[in-house]
Amino acid sequence: MRIARFSKDGQISFGVVEHDPAKGSSPDELASLTVAAVLRQDDGSLKPTGTSHALGDVRLLPPVLPSKIVAFGRNYAEHAAELGNEVPDVPVTFLKPSTSVVGPGDPVPYPSFSSEVHHEAELAVVIGRVCRDVPVERVPEVILGYTCANDLTARDAQRAEKQWARAKGFDGACPLGPWIENELDPADLAVTCTVNGEVRQSGRTSQMIRSVAEQIAFVSQAMTLLPGDVILTGTPAGVGPVQVGDEVAVTIEGIGTLTNRMVKRD
């Protein structure tokens, strides 16, 4: 099931994105959005209303508004190597603020303090229930689903500053979307990033050093995870610069495509 958050006529709702077979055989060729009641935080269930809209008639929003985004760095060996880093013995984690989140199609303001912003395509995990100290074998019980993310990074600021708060946390630094897929095995999915249609990144989640389950178990030892929180699982090799005007698209197999354009900050 693909769960989307959207607005129509000033009202924000959740819905289920359905594939119309008449529009094509690929599950990514989507035609309609069935409106559902707001996702309940206790069990993640949906109550259909029977109303539907064409995707073109609604504005897709970030699929969640997380209290926090916990991200893993250097979780793909080739990506660590391309930036001259070793694979860490202990996972590298950092936080991105909720104000960094934008949705599919939203513009991303290029930060005024940077001249070297890089794209980083990533599988994002959405937490579905309050949890802490989760054993690896029970991690699937706390996952609501998966979405696409772009861990945009001001690389020059990251090199210059010991902490990554500005480099990873500027406004718009965490595009998420287009929806949450809750019926997906994350073990071996294709992860692709294009800039203006040119393929920049092409990897698979099977190349991750630490699995989704290992990452969530690790994070939950330190902090309570809340419904809607997001875990960014790392990026494959091929990261590179984006400029004002560039269209960046992150595609993950079984989920869909998240597209955003870099714009000049007002």
Automatic annotation (TrEMBL):
GO terms for molecular function: acetylpyruvate hydrolase activity; isomerase activity; metal ion binding. Keywords: Isomerase, Metal-binding. Pfam families: FAA_hydrolase, Rv2993c-like_N. The keyword ATP-binding does not apply. It comes from the Bacteria. Transmembrane segments: none annotated. Residues 68-262 form the Fumarylacetoacetase-like C-terminal domain. GO terms for biological process: carboxylic acid metabolic process. Residues 1-63 form the Rv2993c-like N-terminal domain. This is 2-hydroxyhepta-2,4-diene-1,7-dioate isomerase. It comes from Mangrovactinospora gilvigrisea.
